[in-house]
Every structure is written in C-alpha cells, then in structure tokens.
Write a structure and sequence with these properties.
By secondary structure, this protein is an alpha/beta fold. The protein has ten helices and ten strands. The protein is globular and about 50 Å long. The chain starts with 11 loop residues before the first helix and ends with a helix.
Length: 272
C-alpha cells in the first residue's frame, strides 16, 4: 500500500506555466547525449529546440554556485579534485568539453549566474541542487535565492532536490520559487539499505511541500503516476533515453520527461 502524502496539496497554477507542451520535454544537463553535460554547448542545443534546460549546481570553495553534477571535477573536466575544494578561478581554468570530443574543447565550467544571464527567459530552467547530508543548506539556499532575485527569474525557473530539508528552507526563504521533489530507487547506490529507504520516502516528508515531483523512470507505473496526479502533482520522469521507456512512461500518463537527447525524444513522440 502506498503511504499518504502529508502537508498541503500543491497549487496547480504554480506549475502550469512550465507545462505548455504535452508531454513536456526537458534536456537533461542541457543535452548530455549530444554535447558535454552542463556546458554552454549542451544548453544551447536545448535552447535551440525551445525545450527547458535541466542543470546541477554546487558550491565551490570561493562561495559561488557552479554548474556541475559530480562532487569532483574528475569525470567531466581535465582536472581533479572536489568541487567544494576548488575556487571559481581554479574551476574556470579547466576544460569541461574536451573529454566529450575535440569539437567541444575549451568549454568551461559555468556559474549559475552565467547560465541565468545567457539562457534565462529563453527557456525555463530546472535547477537541481546538490544538497547531500552534511551540506551547508543555509548557504546553498541563500546563494540560490540571491541569484534568482538578481535575474528576476521567479517565473522562469523551478528548483528540484532530493533533500526535503533544503526544499523546506527554500520555501521559507522565498516561497515564490517553484519546488520539485526528486524521488528515486537508488538501487545502484552503495548507500546502506536504511539510507536508501529514507531517500526513497523523502517525497512523503511534510517539510518539502513540493509543487511537483520528478521520479526515476523505473518507478513510473500507471498506478503510481495516477496516484501522484490525483494528489495534485504534475509528474516528471527522469532520465528517459530508451524508446521502450519513453512509450511506457507516456502510457503511464506522465506529464513530462527529462532526457539526454530532447530532439530524438521529440521526434519519437511526434512519430508515434
């Protein structure tokens, strides 16, 4: 039996502006299947298609919000070391595109402000915040709220996170910002079983009060999607790249998908 959601039901008017296209297609880390993830090149692919951009942010050592997925720079740049241990100056010296292919050599790690400046207002932006246990949630919230205010993007972005305590603090700091709760199976995680269970069920935490939910594609059964929608949530599904997963998620009634190749997924949806 599925447990009951706690807290107030979401207001559908808060998320309606993001769902003009049905189903909504969002470019994962820009368009991570065709350009180096979380770079200007990948974001430009998504923006040229007119689809929203999903990106990841973290705090670097000098206090700026930078756009990168991993805890370290090792996988996505030619550097090494933890993001939180490197200053913005050090991060800007790295090549964030050459690993993907020679045509992308010279792509740089971006700040959230740079992305907002370049792409804010062109397409909606889904800002995923990395706020694991032990993260400085207060500073993360403060920096994010300040960035949104600097660019007046209250209507142009929404913020997603696994951490319900971060989402709670974001709501308290600036309730205008639309929030989404991320929810996954964590089957591939090396976390202890009790931690995986806690993360899977943080969607149910009354603190978060999400406006929408974003669930891992393996969870997108018709029953579960309908259950969430029946409680007022629009449901995004991540990360959908396989055609069979796409059709299964669409048949389940999901409101949108997050994908590494938005052009290919749009073509498949249109062809269907």
């Amino acid at each position: 039996m599925l447990p009951s959601l706690r807290g107030r039901a979401p207001d559908p008017d808060r998320t309606a502006p993001f769902f003009g296209e049905t189903p909504l297609i969002i470019g994962h880390r820009g368009a991570a299947g065709v350009a180096p993830e979380n770079t200007g090149a990948a974001f430009e692919v998504a923006a040229s298609l007119g689809v929203p951009i999903e990106l990841d942010i973290a705090l670097c050592a000098s206090g700026e919000l930078v756009v990168i997925h991993d805890d370290t720079v090792d996988r996505t740049t030619n550097g090494a070391g933890p993001v939180g241990g490197l200053t913005l100056e050090a991060l800007k010296a790295l090549d964030a595109g050459g690993h993907f292919g020679p045509d992308f050599a010279g792509e740089r790690v971006l700040t959230l402000d740079e992305v907002f400046e370049r792409f804010g207002g062109r397409v909606p932006i889904d800002v995923e915040v990395k706020a694991p246990a032990g993260a400085d949630v207060t500073t993360l919230v403060a920096r994010l709220v300040e960035a949104v205010a600097r660019h007046a993007l209250w209507q142009g972005i929404f913020v997603t996170a696994f951490n319900p305590y971060f989402l709670e603090q974001l709501r308290l700091w600036d309730p205008r910002i639309v929030r989404g709760q991320l929810y996954g199976t964590f089957e591939d995680s090396d976390l202890p079983a009790w931690q995986r269970f806690a993360l899977r069920h943080r969607l149910l935490n009354r603190r978060a009060r999400p406006d929408m939910v974003a669930i891992e594609h393996t969870l997108a059964s018709p029953r579960y999607v309908r259950w969430l929608q029946g409680r007022g949530y629009r449901v995004l599904v991540w990360t959908v790249n396989d055609p069979a997963d796409l059709y299964r998620v669409l048949d389940a009634g999901a409101d949108g998908i997050i994908t590494d190749d938005p052009a290919a997924m749009r073509a498949r949806i249109a062809g269907r």
